[in-house]
Amino acid sequence: MKQLKVKLILNHKITGNYWHLEFESGLIARLARPGQFINIRLTDGCEPLLRRPISIHRVKASKVGIMYEVLGKGTQVLSAKQPGEFLDVIGPLGNGFTYSSAATKPVLKKNILIAGGMGVAPLVFLAEKLKLSKPLVLLGARSKKQLLCLPEFKALGCTVKLATDDGSAGFKGRVTDLLNLVLEQTEARGLFSCGPHPMLAAVARIARENKITAQLSLEEHMACGIGACLGCVVATGAGYRSVCKDGPVFFSEELIW
Amino acid sequence: MVKPKSPNLSLKIANLDLKNPVMVASGTFGYAQEFKDLIDLKKLGAIVTKTITLRGRQGNLPPRTCETPAGMLNSIGLENPGIDKFIREKLPFLKKLGIPVIVSLAAEETPDEFVTLIKKLEQHPEVSAIELNISCPNLKKDKLIAQDAQATLALVSSVRKLTGKCLIVKLSPNVTSITEIALAAQAAGADALALINTLAGMRIDVYKRTPKLGAWVGGLSGPAIRPVAVKMVWEVYSKIKIPIIGMGGIIDTESALEFFIAGAAAISVGTANFIDPGASLKIIAGIRQYMTENNMQNLSQLTGRLKACQG
């Protein structure tokens, strides 16, 4: 990890409140692994005070991309940053997804990626690493308009199935209900998921019932982002562990729900 | 033109030698190892560890942090591995840095725990000083030691007999008169006072109508509390003789200088470590520059040199 001033290349709205930002950093691009994040300082002043942790979405040569949803003051400030400006970032941080080199080759059993809403961001980076295994991607959102990164997954050769709460695209219902249906017909090698907490809890339950491993990327409010303050802990079988340093990716069986 | 002499930033607090007066505050810097890739740790004046208790502690229910206007609340609850594991797993790294290590200690149930804690640290000369954290607001106690002058006097007196190491007592701002507690700590033989710990605070999620912290309440830190801290340092400075280590919302050179002028002999950088891990090192350089520009040769020309408003 390093603290760096990086040059912003682009920062634009994708759809709704979802934004895409790219910056130049050969170092972070080289070191980053899927599931890791960067911690961004928003202002030189005191409002908002804390950095914002955002997972790495894509790495292309020396360019690093992130996606974020404008929800509060912090992400509003971030969305006002202009290309050419410099951002103070610390990264790459945390423990990402684990996959053996075998998982990157064509296999009969499927790697299944389950994304809910903004949780899609780190899974594109993961899909890129797993692309030779032709992963199956289940994308969930409230409605068709909020579905993200469909072209990116298709370009990587992934099979994509959609689920929307209102049925405006794909399966009508929760992405985890779609996962249950998919598992009736597909032999899974492992599940990889990122999204809202209730969705991750459902993925963990499904993994347990089907005796498959699931790796879940958690989201928490953080202060330091490097395991110093012990603010962003999650309950595990081995006691509280830091989401920022021990995670954000945990195997589902480690976590206590 | 004569080149101005570089100012001397060193100071001595009892038998604690500091090459500069900038430390990192307990609880905001882990055990230093966490920051090793981000800053040159050897340049710090001293490192104050996260508070250690006799037995390991799991800490409080999450969520444990929450942002506030120009600050943050925390309710970590002194999560730490316990003194034995600290000595085994954390102290060796700190020792290698070659800078003063100040170990922050707290008792969970009874003050007797300090006897065992101090005895264990006495065998480690690499521990330069001890900070008694008698003011953590996250222990779910009705009354903290630092909220009672008699209790402070009794505890610090008993600990004083056990160690020749520099003894720092960390005070709480959640009191009617911090001077009263400061005088008690001084009378009991404290070598220095650290002030202030966090201010008790709370935030509420109005949509869910729940507290934002798992422990309901926590300690407020960051720039939001700085004016409270500066005032307390100024107030205590006029009444006591032992040095003050000032802290509370220091984020840059100017905010650090406020504390020195109010009466602090040294300062600690806390919450700013989360936002800018290099803040302490920038402050060291900034103090040096300020002293050079103002023809100050040593820190005694800065500490407590507050003047009345003119006109």
General description of the model:
The complex is a heterodimer of chains A (257) and B (311). Chain A is α/β, with parallel strands linked by helices. Chain A folds into 2 domains: 2-93, Elongation Factor Tu (Ef-tu), domain 3, CATH 2.40.30.10; 110-254, 3-Layer(aba) Sandwich (Rossmann fold). Chain A has 6 helices and 15 strands. Chain A has a 7-stranded mixed beta sheet with strand order 10-9-8-7-11-12-15, sandwiched between helices. Chain A has a 6-stranded antiparallel barrel with strand order 1-2-5-4-3-6. In chain A, a hairpin with a 2-residue loop joins β13 (233-236) and β14 (239-242). The longest helix of chain A is centred in the last third of the chain and has 14 residues, at 197-210. The mean pLDDT of chain A is 95. With 311 residues, chain B is an alpha/beta fold. Helices cover 28% and strands 19% of the residues of chain B. Chain B is built from 8 helices and 16 strands. In chain B, strands 3-4-7-8-9-10-15-16 form an 8-stranded parallel β-barrel, surrounded by 6 helices. In chain B, a hairpin with a 2-residue loop joins β1 and β2. The longest helix of chain B is centred in the N-terminal third of the chain and has 15 residues, at 83-97. Chain B is globular. Chain B starts with 10 loop residues before the first strand and ends in an 18-residue tail after the last helix. The interface between A and B is medium-sized, with 31 and 36 residues.
Task: Provide key terms for this protein.
heterodimer; A: 257 residues; alpha/beta; Elongation Factor Tu (Ef-tu), domain 3; Rossmann fold; seven-stranded mixed β-sheet; six-stranded antiparallel β-barrel; 6 helices; 15 strands; B: 311 residues; four-stranded antiparallel β-sheet; 8 helices
Per-chain topology:
The complex is a heterodimer of chains A (257) and B (311).
Chain A: E1 2-15, E2 18-24, H1 26-31, E3 37-41, E4 52-60, E5 63-69, H2 73-79, E6 86-93, E7 110-116, H3 120-129, E8 136-141, H4 150-155, E9 159-164, E10 171-172, H5 175-185, E11 188-194, H6 197-210, E12 214-217, E13 233-236, E14 239-242, E15 249-251
Parallel strand pairs in A: 7-8, 7-11, 8-9, 9-10, 11-12
Antiparallel strand pairs in A: 1-2, 1-6, 2-5, 3-4, 3-6, 4-5, 12-15, 13-14
Helix pairs in contact in A: 5-6
Chain B: E1 11-13, E2 16-18, E3 22-24, E4 46-48, E5 65-68, E6 71-74, H1 83-97, E7 101-105, H2 113-122, E8 127-133, H3 149-160, E9 166-170, H4 178-187, E10 192-195, E11 199-201, E12 204-205, E13 210-211, E14 218-221, H5 226-237, E15 244-246, H6 253-262, E16 266-269, H7 272-275, H8 279-293
Parallel strand pairs in B: 3-4, 3-16, 4-7, 7-8, 8-9, 9-10, 10-15, 15-16
Antiparallel strand pairs in B: 1-2, 5-6, 6-14, 11-14, 12-13
Helix pairs in contact in B: 3-4, 5-6, 6-8
